[in-house]
Amino acid sequence: MIDNQVKKNDPSLQVDINEATQAVRENRFADALKILEISLSKYPDHIDSLYLAAVSARYLKKYQDSKKYIETLLGHAADMGRAYQELGHLNKSIGNENLAIAHYRQATELNPALIGSWQSLHELFKNNDNQLAADHALEQLNKLKTLPNILLYIDQIMNEDRLGVAEIKCREFLKKNPTHTYAMSQLAEIASRLGHYNDAEFLLEKATNFEPNDAALRMKYLMVLRKTQKFAKTTEQVNILCEKFPNNLLYQSQKAVEMMQSGENLNAINVFNEIIQKSPYNYSALTLKGHAEKTLGNTNESISSYQQAYTIKADHGEAFFSLSNLKTYSFSENELKIMNSQLERVDLPLKERVYFHFALAQGYELNGEYDQAFFHFKRGNQIKNSQSKYSINGMNEEFQAQIDICDESFFSNLGVGGHQSNDPIFIVGLPRAGSTLIEQILASHSMIDGTLELPNILSLAHSLRGDDVYGKKGNYPKVMKDFTCTQRELLGKTYSQETRIHRKDAPMFTDKMPNNFRHIGLIHLILPNAKIIDARRYPLDCCFSMYKQLFAQGQEFSYGLKEAGNYYRSYVKLMDHWEKVLPNKILRVNNEDLIEDLEGQVKRMLDFIQVPFEQECISFHETDRSVRTASSDQVRQPINKKGMGRWKPYAKNLKPLLESIGEDLLYPEDISLIK
After folding, report:
1. CATH code, domain carrying 556
2. Which residues, including other chains, have CB under 8 Å from residue 672's CB and lie 6 or more apart?
3. Among 462, 498, 452, residue whose Cα is nearest residue 198
């Protein structure tokens, strides 16, 4: 946990913490508390002081004081695993075993290396005759007890997001113990958090080969493969888990998730139904079933699943958020009351808190309570922004590097090269700009398969960068200047082969990863015949829609109005550059034009792609296909203007957005509403 600079530079504070820590180790809890009360009078939100004070007060049986310290601590560090562990210890001490179990579980979810929590869970489950849960806790406990102290320390600092130090310590350990699978999984976790998925995959593949019966290890491998959408490999791994552990419902659930990823949503629903029949209170399976139903367009069924999930677990924020993410669901007064009461809890994990804020925001918006709605949009985004490492300057530097390297002379000197396939149709732009609508229109054509937001181009760009944990920038996009014709051909061919699994039988397919606009130079280099469509939307509609949407992953620029506006402006600048250096390569499709003249814009797109007109593209909302994005419900309706001008009720709050977008990109009448 990071404190402010004043605290960092106060040597007396560190002296107090050291003395208090030593006193706690020697069981001199009264002495420790005296020291900590003095430090907290100067720095009342200091994380370490609050934690040690809570521990000391508990041992002195000052339970109310201990609770007060923990609650204050959680107000500043809501995802600190040790804080939940201490809350578990407190409730265990006063005889509230059910609450203690809940907090120990929260602690282990946030930090699986907390031995004290697993020890207590084992004891409590055993005392309550829950042998299955007790055995699981004991298994985790015994595994941790076998680990060297250095690996437990690495787990701790990883959970405090000190990844640089964690990587150094982990590599040092692996040099001496090259086949230690737990250390390999730790290094893989660090790589994964930094976006180095290929490195993480390599490490975990090796680790599972060393320990083929370690289910937890194989699950980590599965999750990394899923992040890069390597569905053939994920299916292989989940099948191994199900074969080895046929009665494990978690692995059965993961198998159903893989079915969903492959478009087998009906089969997935059948599996979830079987799981729910065996485990009626499995709120996670109910939520996932809701997602599958939503993907198929079965709105009523998805609503029922989400409602059942939160009925079982009232603090399951994902279920409430999933209801709000349908965009058409209206919360009852009781549901709003439940969500608000959850937000009053100091021990509510940040992840759930974010879900509740975004769900409430959507709920209040539908009720026309825009001040309340904006409050929750703002709070949810503030939490996400605080967890993000996104930098406006860093992103602008990346955009400028593309402009500087991929200039007119770069493309004029390329010559012939790259994979000559004309199969891919890249739909690029910003999230919430209408890319899903365009994809649905094109996927309604008999010659075009609609796929997913494929990560392949982003993964390739990331691998070419070669960034490290210390922030050192790699050599991309400059490295593209050194590509040979053979390399360009190979990279393009690899893309075509890797994406084949997402296609059916049509000769062409869409790749609608929006952020591919940042890599159009790379796309042209390796796939010179690919078609590129730029999905463009009016900036105020687009940016505020992004701000309102809680994305599953990525899109960190959407967590602030200033960040979203700056990103939009930078996107326009980069797209202007691509259109200049690659004339006639990109077709811009404005969302507003599509709404006003559907048939004309459809014909324009099909002419660009060079396929004949088909009426089915006009009646796209009748096309029966799975849609997984936030716009899944909207694209199943006839085209309409519902999404236009939805920022206007919030105009008084949007000055940071106006300033970052710039007045030159906006209508004068809209500027006057915000100023």
Report:
1. 3.40.50.300
2. none
3. 462
